[in-house]
Design brief:
- The complex is a heterodimer of chains A (210) and B (206).
- Chain A is of the alpha+beta class and 210 residues long.
- Chain A has a domain of 117 residues: Immunoglobulins (Immunoglobulin-like).
- Chain A is built from 6 helices and 7 strands.
- In chain A, the strands form 2 sheets. Chain A has a 4-stranded antiparallel β-sheet. Chain A has a 3-stranded antiparallel β-sheet with strand order 1-2-5, with helices on one face.
- Chain B contains 9 helices and 2 strands.
- With 206 residues, chain B is mainly alpha-helical.
- The longest helix of chain B is centred in the last third of the chain and has 28 residues.
- Chain B starts with 9 loop residues before the first helix and ends with a helix.
Chain lengths: 210, 206
């Protein structure tokens, strides 16, 4: 009896060591997954590819497919795991990352996301057709702005706004990309081990000597 | 070297699933009551082993441990690895549910083959032979997994040899590390828990 207990202890020690080591290294866990995130800046699509541990996917193959699944272009990510391309066509694109040996991820990019500043539907000439201010005595400010609005908007303002917005939004998109990445978490590891222990119980129940 | 979802074609996925089901059935049949706890522990070890990464130059590789699982479990490696892979797919998104069958085969098949090839040598008189057998078990289980992965990828990617060469070359470091880890485990188990090793009862009988 004593011998059996001793042996059980050994087994538990080995197990504890394995678990301990895995948790120590958990932060750097290199995994069988790749993350891809893409966003549009002006007429360029930027793609960022990472492994779940934050390492960049170097030389990952990027394929850009249109809505019919036809390949429009392809390329490889650089050392920072990035890839960029000019919007090839106004279509629902799918960006596929193949990081080799079965690693694959994709990211859909809809038509609306792509609409570049230049080709965006021209803002309707709303200003002139706008109902005149109902107040009988419009404030002078409005009066002054009215002629400005009535005249066609100076060319280049829209792209400029788009550009500024893209610039401002870039960090936000990056943050979203990071949140989108799924990392290995301790709760998952513990949950998985719990499942295995439970299955051992089930197996033991069905295989018990009656 | 889990294969992700959406990489393989339907027939490959289906045949992988069929093979995995057959292997699991045999494994469950051969799994007797005394082995259940061992199978569970090894399944757990396999489940977390993929998270243990070994820094290696600029990059890193992670343990697979299918050799050790196979060596200690034999056919029961199939259900143990299937369970661990299913949980990895659910929790970590490694591989994927549709690719589960293929991944199970590519991990468990080499494990079983290595069990039959190397377990008879574990209680050889000469310790060097034992060490070599354990090392080879870890080494070849990863090597064969790479070969099977290439065979699965062959139908969707380029030709077999280039894929196989790439997969195997990329895994040479992990083959060596697995070999060392497996050898250490066998030496350790022989000292503290020899009954966990296969062929132990055979040796007792002599």
């Amino acid at each position: 009896m004593k011998k059996i207990i001793l042996r059980l202890e050994h087994v538990l020690i080995v197990w504890a060591i394995v678990l301990g080591v895995s948790f120590l290294l958990n932060g750097n866990a290199h995994a069988h997954r790749v993350n891809i995130f893409a966003w549009v800046e002006g007429d360029t699509v930027l793609v960022e590819c990472k492994y779940p541990d934050g390492r960049e996917v170097y030389e990952g193959v990027i394929r850009v497919l249109d809505s019919a699944g036809k390949e429009l272009l392809n390329g490889k990510t650089n050392a920072k795991g990035e890839f960029s391309f000019k919007v090839p066509r106004q279509d629902d694109l799918t960006i596929v990352l193949e990081a080799g040996m079965g690693h694959r991820a994709d990211w859909p990019l809809s038509k609306q996301d792509l609409a570049p500043a230049g080709e965006a539907p021209k803002p309707e000439p709303a200003a002139p057709s706008e109902p005149a201010p109902k107040t009988e005595a419009p404030p002078p400010a409005a009066k002054e702005s009215a002629p400005g609005a009535a005249s066609p908007p100076p060319a280049g303002i829209d792209p400029a706004i788009e550009k500024a917005l893209d610039k401002k939004l870039a960090p936000v998109l990056r943050m979203l990309a990071e949140m989108h990445e799924q990392k290995v978490r301790l709760t998952d590891v513990l949950g998985g081990i719990g499942y295995i222990i439970g299955l051992v119980g089930v197996a033991a129940y069905f295989k018990r000597k009656t | 070297m889990h294969i992700s979802e959406g990489v393989l074609s339907g027939p490959v996925l289906l045949s992988g699933a069929a093979l995995a089901a057959a292997g699991t059935a045999i494994g469950l049949k051969k799994l007797d009551y005394d082995q259940i706890a061992k199978a569970g522990m090894l399944s757990g070890a396999f489940f977390v082993a993929s998270l243990i990464h070994v820094p290696l130059g600029p990059t890193s590789v992670h343990l697979i441990m299918n050799g050790l699982v196979g060596l200690l479990l034999g056919w029961a490696a199939f259900p143990a690895i299937l369970v661990a892979l299913a949980l990895q797919a659910v929790f970590f998104q490694f591989g994927g549910i549709t690719a589960l069958g293929v991944n199970t085969v590519l991990m468990a098949m080499p494990a079983v083959l290595c069990y039959f090839a190397f377990s008879p040598l574990l209680f050889h008189r000469r310790p060097l032979v034992v060490l070599a057998a354990a090392f080879a078990c870890g080494f070849f289980s990863v090597f064969l997994a790479g070969v099977i992965a290439s065979m699965a990828l062959m139908f969707t990617e380029e030709n077999f040899w280039s894929v196989a060469a790439m997969v195997v070359a990329a895994h040479i470091p992990i083959m060596i590390i697995e070999g060392i880890v497996t050898a250490l485990c066998v030496v350790f188990l022989k000292k503290v828990q020899p009954s966990m090793l296969p062929a132990y009862s055979r040796k007792e009988g002599l």
